[in-house]
Design the sequence.
């Protein structure tokens, strides 16, 4: 059965963005969790938003590339229109916030390290933060944007990954290639973990695609072998979700074999594999939910790119230590995400459709 364009990916992305928002806000607002709140945060930590985004990206981008591989310009234009218009508007809002908070001056925008920072933010080095901005909030105006660089790196290597893993290859060689790519990614990740945390090699490795590539590859593998796997995935999301929760509760919470993180041990690696299958299965289970609840609107990107800016403002103002501030951060971020979607992202997507004609 061919893949259905009717799915829950928008809803899952929204959940992943909200997960990142709550986890980041809870940490930086210095909230102390107990009782039901502690249980909720613990359960939420089993669904780390960034790996979820990477798995979805691997699945959907490979799907999109296979449909548009003869139109590379259109493929990359579509990707850039999805990323950059909202990102640039977010940068403008960030600059206004920094000026308002007297962290920078207008003159600094046109020379020195602040100018370099602006250039990195409008290009592909969003992880860069100069020392002049370390005094604002938690030390970086919008630290969560480091993953944008990884996403852009992934877009660049998609054609290579497609050639290496394409369906027409001998089955055995396809298996060997896929396992080899994942193995290289995991070995690179293991090497990166051994580097001193405060060294330049460690910092560079932390924003390099290869240690994280295995997360994208999980999504790619599920796409490539969809016809073989769909019977165990299609409509089985609830079962995979229960199985994943059981594994997480036993191996993480009860036995303490791993902690959910971007840098898991072997048990966490297994958890990420099961989580990837769970996410794709949920995307193709009860597929009317996303359209019914969101009506085709996708607020996840706006939540992701604005939430840490809002958190930083609260930290700068000293609004920490209360759940009231968490609720306010959530509401302000969602409001900005809705404005971003209707005023920036959705118009850009309409322009994308004109280009593809």
Sequence:
């Amino acid at each position: 059965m061919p893949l259905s364009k009717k799915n829950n990916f928008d809803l899952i992305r929204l959940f992943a963005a909200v997960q990142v928002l709550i986890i980041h806000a809870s940490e930086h607002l210095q909230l102390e969790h107990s009782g039901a709140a502690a249980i909720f945060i613990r359960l939420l930590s089993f669904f780390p938003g960034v790996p979820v985004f990477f798995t979805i990206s691997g699945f959907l981008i490979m799907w999109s590339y296979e449909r548009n591989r003869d139109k590379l310009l259109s493929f990359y234009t579509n990707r850039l229109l999805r990323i950059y218009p909202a990102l640039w508007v977010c940068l403008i809002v960030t600059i206004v916030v920094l000026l308002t908070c007297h962290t920078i001056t207008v003159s600094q925008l046109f020379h020195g390290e602040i100018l370099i920072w602006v250039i990195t933010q409008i290009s592909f080095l969003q992880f860069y933060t100069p020392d002049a901005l370390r005094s604002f909030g938690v030390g970086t105006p919008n630290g969560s944007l480091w993953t944008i660089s990884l996403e852009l790196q992934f877009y660049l290597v998609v054609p290579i990954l497609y050639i290496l893993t394409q369906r027409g290859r001998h089955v055995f060689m396809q298996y060997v290639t896929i396992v080899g790519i994942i193995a290289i990614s995991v070995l690179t990740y293991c090497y990166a973990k051994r580097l001193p945390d405060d060294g330049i090699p460690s910092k560079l490795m932390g924003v390099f695609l290869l240690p994280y590539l295995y997360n994208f590859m999980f999504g790619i593998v599920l796409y490539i072998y969809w016809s073989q796997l769909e019977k165990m995935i299609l409509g089985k999301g609830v079962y995979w979700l229960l199985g994943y929760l059981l594994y997480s509760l036993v191996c993480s919470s009860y036995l303490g074999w791993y902690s959910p993180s971007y840098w898991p041990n072997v048990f966490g690696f297994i958890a990420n594999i099961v989580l990837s299958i769970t996410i794709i299965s949920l995307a193709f289970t009860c597929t009317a939910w996303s359209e019914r609840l969101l009506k085709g609107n996708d607020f996840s990107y706006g939540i992701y790119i604005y939430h840490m800016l809002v958190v930083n403002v609260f930290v700068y103002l000293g609004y920490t230590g209360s759940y009231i501030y968490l609720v306010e951060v959530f509401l302000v971020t969602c409001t900005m995400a809705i404005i971003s979607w209707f005023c920036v992202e959705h118009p850009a997507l309409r322009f994308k459709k004109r280009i593809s004609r």
